[in-house]
Write a structure and sequence with these properties.
Number of helices: 7
Helix content: 40-55%
Oligomer: single chain
Distance between the termini: 29 Å
CATH class: Alpha Beta
GO molecular function: beta-N-acetylglucosaminidase activity
InterPro entries: Acyl_CoA_acyltransferase, Glycosyl_Hydrolase_84
Strand order of the largest sheet: 1-2-3-4-6-5
Largest sheet: 6 strands, mixed
């Protein structure tokens, strides 16, 4: 599912053949390892086609990701994988940006949503997202946040329809991305 929406150059595609878990590790690995109880999967007749992943206590999740999960994944995907590989694994070797404390206080949970391009039923994606938000709320969360690329109009629209708004915080984000938040 993770590879369906990827349009990459041949060098990166070659690395993905050699390391088939790379995209899954990048998109969902930390959630599956550190917060599996808040990971939901959407399936159709062709298999997995969407996911909703979250962390109830984002601050602890991010600390654990940085201190234990990232070192292990960096060992799994060393930068020496080659030119295409270095580009593909850059995410794992870049220092993660700290989420501002005001965001973590107001929106203590982290979410990440994704669907394959073949999913045309927005209702299914919405239901999946609402399952995650309901689970987080039922376990005490009062708000959630996520990071979205400014160029991903489809994701921005989807999150907006779920009630997320752009957070007006100073954040040393990579150019072209923003934090969105929603109270529960």
């Amino acid at each position: 599912m993770c590879r369906e929406s990827l349009d990459c150059d041949p060098k990166v595609a070659e690395i993905l053949v050699a390391h088939p878990d790379l995209l899954g590790d990048r998109l969902l690995g930390s959630f599956l390892s550190l917060s599996p109880e808040y990971t939901f999967v959407l399936e159709d007749e062709d298999g997995p086609c969407g996911y909703a992943a979250g962390a109830l206590h984002a601050e602890g999740f991010l600390q654990q990701r940085d201190s234990s999960w990232l070192p292990a994944i960096r060992h799994k995907y060393p930068p020496e994988l080659g030119t295409g590989g270095a580009e593909a694994v850059l995410f794992f070797h870049a220092e993660p940006l700290a989420v501002p404390q005001p965001v973590l206080r107001r929106f203590p949970s982290l979410v990440q949503l994704g669907t394959a391009p073949r999913v045309l039923d927005v209702g299914a994606s919405r239901s999946l997202a609402l399952c995650l938000l309901s689970a987080l709320r039922a376990n005490g969360s009062r708000g959630v946040f996520c990071q979205v690329s400014d160029t991903d109009r489809q994701q921005l629209s989807f999150y907006s329809k779920l009630g997320f708004v752009a957070l007006p915080v100073a954040w040393g984000s990579s150019p072209g991305s923003q934090l969105l938040g929603r109270l529960l």
